[in-house]
Each structure stands twice: as structure tokens, then as C-alpha cells.
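Kindly inspect both lines:
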Amino acid sequence: MIYCASPGSFALLNRLVWIINECHKKNIFCALVCTNMWSGRNRQIVVDELCRVLNNVHPQIKSTKEDGIIYYDNVALVTMVNSIEYIDEDFNVNKPQSGIDELIFGIGKCLQRDFMFAWLRTVSHNESFWKNMLSKLNILFQIPSDKFNNFYQHAGNFLGYLFGFNDDDYRYITNTNTKNTDESIFFDAEMIEMSEDSPKSKLKFIIKSAELGAQLSEVLAKLGAARLNVVESETTNEQEIIITAKFNNTERIMAVHDLCQIINHGQVNCTIVD
């Protein structure tokens, strides 16, 4: 829940207290925001009043402040923002946009992982956010800098419409396997490697089962693989399927490769949410 109040606005705080209490009962995160912060001198008064409301609702929580945002653990935050450039020609005041990227990041990092991904997906095309918050996102996801930066550069954005496919494709790719478990469809696949062909145009997967191989082949086709070659391995006693996927787009092949590298770190859990 995002509640906004600008300097000079009026609200019955007892009703706001009720709303926040109800949100807390239903595990709904609350962001209380002073908007249009440069439009009046009493912006700090607005922030202080919002903090007093949260202090009354959550007296057991000790607030912390980071990058201009006041956090109440992972249940609420208070901040002030200016969503567009503020210009007052009469008083010769010109203030740039402020606080929006930090607010988006602050909300995201307070949410549970599945909801965080869903939240960040809504801003997947916000270039300002991904550029300005890149270092903080790198730390938040606990992904090595070179992997994260490389993925970001090739994919354009970290989440959302990663390769420009539609919602049906997105739901299929991020879904769990057909056994309806919490395991990723890549759970039983060894890490892919870049084919030795030059220029780099192929990815090679080593899969532990034919069923998983069929699922992965269909996903790779949706991700833009131009040609797939599926063979059984003859080098081991165990059943192994080798899938070689050829891509015609260099950025696409690098993005798929880096995405799988990130998943293999074991710190990414992706599920479908409403």
C-alpha cells in the first residue's frame, strides 16, 4: 500500500492508523510518502507526522534511515519524493526529480523475494532506476558484479519482459516443472557452456533426463533458439541428454547464458505470482 500526502494537504490521522493496522494484519507492506516535496516548507512536518503514525502502530519497531528513507523493518517505510522537476518562476526555484528510484528500491528490498521480483518487473523499462540503482541491486541479489553487470548490459533490464516475449511465454518460462513442485525446470541440468564454434552462436546443455530435455528444448525455442540438436550422450553410463541450441542473435545468446549462470548460483527462486 502506498499512501501519499503533499505539503499543505489534510488527512484524518486516525483513519490512516486504521488503514495501516489493517494492512499489517494482512501482511501488506506500507509506504508512506510525502509527494511534491518542494511545493511547501512543511515537508519535514509531513514526514514527522507519518513517522508518528507508524510509531503508534508499531511501537516495538526501531526505525532506521538509509538514503533518505526511514525503514520500519520490512513492514513499512517513510520518505519524501519529487516525481518531476519542480519549477517556481516567481521565487526562482528549480529542483530536479528526487527520491523516486530510491523509493522503488526501498519498497522492493522490503518485500519477500517472489513479490520483490513482481514489483521490480513493473519497472523493468525504467532505465533511470536500473542505471542509478545498479550497484545496490547487485548487493541485494548477492550476485558477483561481473555476472550481474554483464547480464544487465545484454538484457537491458533484469526482470520483466526479459527478451521481449509475451505474458504467456513469461509464465511458461518462470513456471515450475510439470510435477508441480518448487524445483526449477533447470534443477536437474548441469551448467551450460558456450560451444567452441566461432563466432559464439551455440549453447550446450547436459541434461539428466529425457523429460527435462523435452521441457528445456521447448523453453529454448520460446527464447529464440534458431535450431536445436538433441542427442544422447555416449560418454557416461548414466542417461544424459545433450542439447545444443543455436542462436542468431549475439545479445540473446549471452543473455540466456548469463541467466543460467545466475540461476546456478542457487540464490534465485522464481515463481509465478498474481
In short: Residues 178 and 185 are 8 Å apart (CA to CA). Confidence is low (pLDDT under 50) at residues 154-198. The two ends are 16 Å apart (CA to CA).
